[in-house]
Each structure stands twice: as structure tokens, then as C-alpha cells.
Design brief:
The complex is a heterodimer of chains A (about 170) and B (about 170).
Chain A: H1 2-11, H2 20-36, E1 43-48, H3 52-55, E2 66-70, E3 76-78, E4 82-85, H4 97-103, H5 106-121, E5 127-132, H6 138-151, E6 155-159
Parallel strand pairs in A: 2-5, 5-6
Antiparallel strand pairs in A: 2-3, 3-4
Chain B: H1 2-10, H2 19-36, E1 51-52, E2 56-57, E3 64-69, H3 78-87, E4 94-97, E5 103-106, H4 111-127, E6 136-141, H5 147-159, E7 164-171
Parallel strand pairs in B: 1-7, 3-6, 6-7
Antiparallel strand pairs in B: 3-4, 4-5
Helix pairs in contact in B: 4-5
Classes of the chains: A alpha/beta (about 170), B alpha/beta (about 170).
Chain lengths: ~170, ~170
């Protein structure tokens, strides 16, 4: 009886589980999911509207503000007559050369950089007035804002007049 | 010989208890993941974001007053439309979320209400010690939304004293 009892107690050891392999798997899965989850984060384009106090000054600015006009079809003009962007086609497929040429307003960026250089040469802040047709798509405005950001112009006045009605 | 035997009995299996280390590792991992998560603003899934060629990271969402600008309902994807209908009353053009996360929709006749909302948000942010210049309008405009709606939101913000505008975009493909 005593002998039998002793053998039983020797067998009763603390059941230990080797969890290191489980941890390996957990970490591996966690890292996999972290890497695989592609978080598309929103980006930003900053602009600043010239405050009303700035415009109250009767003094004429040393450089006339640049004027960008966006028409309802998405075409963009610089200072009245120079067309710097073609009509917008929302059906254009991303990745195609047509899409790129339509979206990247290279000519506008060039004009804006020239304008900025001109303004900085006379120690004036480059200000651009943007007039957009009410029905123009928001995407096209963002394209213009991207061009402004690329040229380093942050001060943008927004006109509510309809350029197609003029 | 007997001495040697006693010494051998003292030797115990050198098992390291890994569980506190795992706890610490997970805790650190979660801490870093939470900290590294990009700064997000309240995102409305009904808005199809425009893309921009040159845009920068939103490093600090503090001070952003988010206004969603919706496109016409016939231009929305079915899923987006479903969410829009659930969250906002009909004919909502601008959608915002209050401090409690409740969505509020404004239609074309409620521009004054939108101005008041922005003004109130601005006061709240200022009350938290934020500088005037750090209060920004975060405009989440749908890519197909007419410019008129976005410009109205900007005008409302200007009327409320917010002149810094941030256009929400996605990186261009």
C-alpha cells in the first residue's frame, strides 16, 4: 500500500508547457499582420486665406497677385490667357500617361515658380487668387493646390465669382 | 563521495519563466504600435478622397476642424451611399462630427449653422490653450464634389475666423 502511494506521488509533477514556440508563432503572426495591413494615410495640402485685415491696407502690393482660373470643364488658365491645364477627364485611368499629363500641371508649376521668384525679388509675399467655376470638380482644385504646394506658395485668395459667367 | 552526492541533489533544472518577459514585450509592442499609428482625423467613409501629386504628411491633427464635403448621391458608390444615408439626413452637403463623435449634417440652406459650428469648435480649441494660428479647417472634399460646396465651407470657416485650410488628399498613384 505504502509502496504504491509513493510511486503515484513521484509521477505527479507540475505540468509545464513549453510556451516559447507559441510565443514565436504569435509574434510572427503579429508582425505579419502589421506588415500586411497597408494603412493608406491621408495626406495634406496647406493653404492660407489672406485675412481681411491684410486686404484692408490701401497700399498697392508691389507685385500683382497671380490669377488662376479653373473653368467648369477642368481647364486651367494662368493670368487670364495662358492655358496651363487641359480639360479634366474623370474617366482617365491612373497610371496612364494621359492621366499623368492631365493631372500634373507642370506648366502651371513653372509659371508659379517664376511668379514666386519675381515676388521674392521685391521682398513681397507671393499671393495667388484662385477663381473656380462652381461646378468644377474638387479633384481639379486639389491638382491646383498641389501645383501651388510644389511651387512653395501658401497664400491663396479664393474668389467666388464664376469664371464661365464672365 | 557522499559529499559529491549531496552537491548533485542541489542542482535544479534551470527553467526560465518566460511569461513576465512576454508580458513586457507585448506591452512595449502595443505601446509602440499605438504611438506610431499615424495621426488620424475623423474620417467619413462616404467621401472619396482626391489624390494629389505633391502632398505632405499630416504630422499634427491637433487643431483640425474636420468638414466633409459630399458629392451628389448619384455619384456615390453603393456602400458609401448606404453609410451616408445612415449617418446624415437627406440632402446633406457638409458633414461634421461633434466632440462626442455624433455626426451632424448641414444642407445648402444651413451655411450659418456650419459657420456657428466652426466658430464653436474654434472656441473649444482655444479654450484648450491652442493658439489661433494653429486652428485649421481640415477639408475632406469628395473628388467629385462641385467646387461650390468646398468654397462655401471655406467661406464659412473664414467667417468663423479660421483662415488656415488643409485639403485632405491621398497620395497620387
Amino acid at each position: 500500500m505504502a509502496r504504491h502511494k509513493q510511486i503515484k506521488t513521484e509521477e505527479q509533477e507540475d505540468p509545464e508547457m513549453n510556451i516559447s514556440s507559441m510565443i514565436d508563432c504569435c509574434f510572427l503572426l503579429l508582425i505579419y499582420f502589421l506588415v500586411a495591413t497597408s494603412l493608406v494615410s491621408e495626406k495634406k495640402l496647406d493653404i492660407s486665406i489672406p485675412a481681411s485685415t491684410q486686404s484692408s491696407s490701401s497700399q498697392k502690393p508691389p507685385v500683382d497677385p497671380g490669377r488662376i482660373v479653373l473653368r467648369a470643364d477642368g481647364s486651367v488658365t494662368w493670368n487670364g490667357d495662358l492655358t496651363v491645364g487641359d480639360a479634366y477627364d474623370p474617366e482617365a485611368q491612373p497610371g496612364t500617361s494621359e492621366y499623368r499629363s492631365q493631372r500634373e500641371l507642370d506648366q502651371l508649376v513653372e509659371q508659379l515658380k517664376n511668379y514666386k521668384d519675381l515676388a521674392t525679388s521685391v521682398q513681397a509675399e507671393p499671393i495667388v487668387m484662385l477663381t473656380g467655376a462652381p461646378s468644377a470638380p474638387h479633384q481639379r482644385i486639389v491638382d491646383i493646390m498641389a501645383a501651388l504646394a510644389e511651387a512653395g506658395i501658401k497664400s491663396v485668395g479664393i474668389s467666388t465669382a464664376d469664371p464661365d459667367a464672365q | 563521495m557522499a559529499k559529491k552526492n549531496a552537491r548533485g541533489n542541489d542542482e535544479v533544472n534551470g527553467n526560465v519563466n518566460l511569461s513576465p518577459m512576454i508580458d513586457c514585450c507585448f506591452l512595449l509592442l502595443i505601446f509602440f504600435v499605438v504611438n506610431a499609428t499615424q495621426i488620424t482625423v475623423a474620417k467619413d467613409p462616404s467621401v472619396k478622397m482626391p489624390s494629389a501629386v505633391s502632398c505632405s504628411e499630416l504630422k499634427d491633427a491637433n487643431g483640425c476642424i474636420v468638414v466633409n464635403v459630399f458629392s451628389d448621391v448619384d455619384k456615390m458608390a453603393p456602400k458609401a451611399l448606404e453609410k451616408y444615408n445612415k449617418a446624415y439626413p437627406a440632402n446633406t452637403l457638409w458633414g461634421v462630427a461633434d466632440a462626442n463623435g455624433n455626426t451632424i449634417g448641414y444642407n445648402s440652406g444651413q451655411t450659418q449653422e456650419l459657420t456657428d459650428f466652426i466658430k464653436k469648435q474654434k472656441e473649444n480649441l482655444k479654450g484648450k490653450g491652442l493658439e489661433d494660428s494653429k486652428v485649421r479647417l481640415y477639408l475632406r472634399g469628395d473628388m467629385a464634389a462641385p467646387w461650390e460646396r468646398s468654397s462655401t465651407a471655406i467661406r464659412c470657416a473664414a467667417a468663423a475666423g479660421v483662415t488656415n485650410i488643409v485639403f485632405g488628399t491621398l497620395p497620387s498613384k
